[in-house]
C-alpha cells in the first residue's frame, strides 16, 4: 500500500493514551498552519478500543484499579476544539469533568481510585469523537495490525506488518507501551518444568488478569505463588479472590478495614515473594492528610530551578547526590511540621542527616525510620496507620510522600539531561527504589491484603527471597525452616523497558538495522527533546520519533498516565506538523 507522491504520510504505531494525545496535538498544530496542505495519517493499533491501549482496556475486570486518585486526575487536560484542513473536531472534556457526569463518587473522603477500565472508556470516547470526523474526510486510516519491521530507504519508511503487508510513510511515531522482554533464566527453567506435567500451572505474566479468574484448574485446594510483591501482585490478588466469587466486606467506613468471605473457587493459599520482600506504602487516605506532605509553591519552583540547571549540564554530576540534597531540603521542613511524627524534638540537622543516610542506604537504621527488621505484617499495619494519620509518621514514609508530589516537576526538569549516562542511570535507580513509597497503592488495597492475612489465605512466611526448588508437584518454597508446596506460579513482575532485552519484532529489527540504540545498557533508547531518535552516527538521523516507555533514560517519567499528556508530545507534534506540511506554526 503506498501513498500518493504529492501527499505526505505520517504513521503512528501504537494508539494508547500517549498516541491519542500525539494525534490530537499533531492535528492541533496542523490547524495553525496558514498553508493548508493535506497529509494522511496511518494508525496501527491491534487493541479493540483505540485510545485506551492495553493497560486501560475497557473489557478488563473492575478489580484492576488505577493507582492515581480521581482527585489527582484533575490534571488530565481537556481537548479544545480543532478546526483544520476541512475538518472540525469537537472539544472533549477533561477527565474530571467527564467523570463527574459518568458516575464518579463526588468529592469527599476517602480518595476514590477508579477502575482502569473507566479511564479506558474515557480515552476511547475521546478518540471516537476525533475519528468520526477524520475517517469521513479520509484523513486517517486505521489498521488493527502489529508492525514488525520499519525500514528507511530513499527518504521513505517502509513498514511491514505481522501479515507481511507493507505501507509507506514519510515520518513515523512509535508510541507503544509495555513490550515483552526475554525470559529470565529462572522463568525459562520454570516454563520447561511446567510443561512436564498437566497439573502444574505457570503464568509467565499476570496480564491479562482474566486468565487467573477463568482458569478451571485453580480451586479451593490450590496453593499459588505470586512472584513479585508490588502493584501487579495486588491485581492478581483481587483476580484470585473477588473475581472468583469471594467478597471483601467493609467493617469500618472511616479506615476502609474489611473482612474476607471466601468461596470454593478461591485458592487455599496465596504466597507472594520477592528478593527483598519489602511491603508497599499506601497513599494517604484523603486530601487533607495528603496535604501534610505537599511542598509549597516556592519550594517547587526552587526545586525545579536547581534540577533544571543540572539537567542543562551547568554542572556535571557523578551520582544522584544532587537530587537527594534537593529532596531533603523540603523533607526537613515538612517532617518538622507534621503534627503526628515519631519524635517531636528532633532538630532539622538530625532530620537532614537521617534522610540523606536513608536515601543512600535503605537498610540504614534510626529511631526516626520504620524498622524493616519488623515482621512484614507489622510493617504493613504501621504503614496503614500512617496513611490514616492515626500513628506516628516515620521519616521514610514522609520522604516517599514528599517525593510523590515532586515527581512530575522532576520529570519535566531532568528529562533529556545533559549528564553522563551513568549519572542518569543512578538517578533513575533512586527513583525506582522510592517507588515503593511514591507509587504506593490505594489504602483500600492494603486493607484487603490484611483481610486475606486474617482469613489465612495470604501467607507472608516466604515473602523475602525464599529458596525455590522444582519438585514433581510444582515448586517448593523454603524459608526459616518452613516449607510450602506450590502448584501454580504467577509472575507478577512487570517487564522493565530495557531496550536490549525487549523481544518484540519491531524493536529487535530496529536495533538490528541500527536505527535505534540505547542511552544506557540498562535503559531505553536515546532521543532528542522532540522525540526523534538519536544515533551516534549523525548521518543515520531520520524522522523516526519514539515517545513513552521505550525512551526511558532519555525521558525519566514514562509510567504515569499524566505523563502521556506532557510537553514532549506537544513539541514533537509542533515540529512534525511543520516538517510534514512544510511551514512553521503560528502558535
From TrEMBL:
<dbReference type="Pfam" id="PF13454">
    <property type="entry name" value="NAD_binding_9"/>
</dbReference>
<dbReference type="InterPro" id="IPR052189">
    <property type="entry name" value="L-asp_N-monooxygenase_NS-form"/>
</dbReference>
<dbReference type="InterPro" id="IPR036188">
    <property type="entry name" value="FAD/NAD-bd_sf"/>
</dbReference>
<protein>
    <submittedName>
        <fullName>FAD/NAD(P)-binding protein</fullName>
    </submittedName>
</protein>
<dbReference type="InterPro" id="IPR038732">
    <property type="entry name" value="HpyO/CreE_NAD-binding"/>
</dbReference>
<feature type="domain" description="FAD-dependent urate hydroxylase HpyO/Asp monooxygenase CreE-like FAD/NAD(P)-binding">
    <location>
        <begin position="11"/>
        <end position="179"/>
    </location>
</feature>
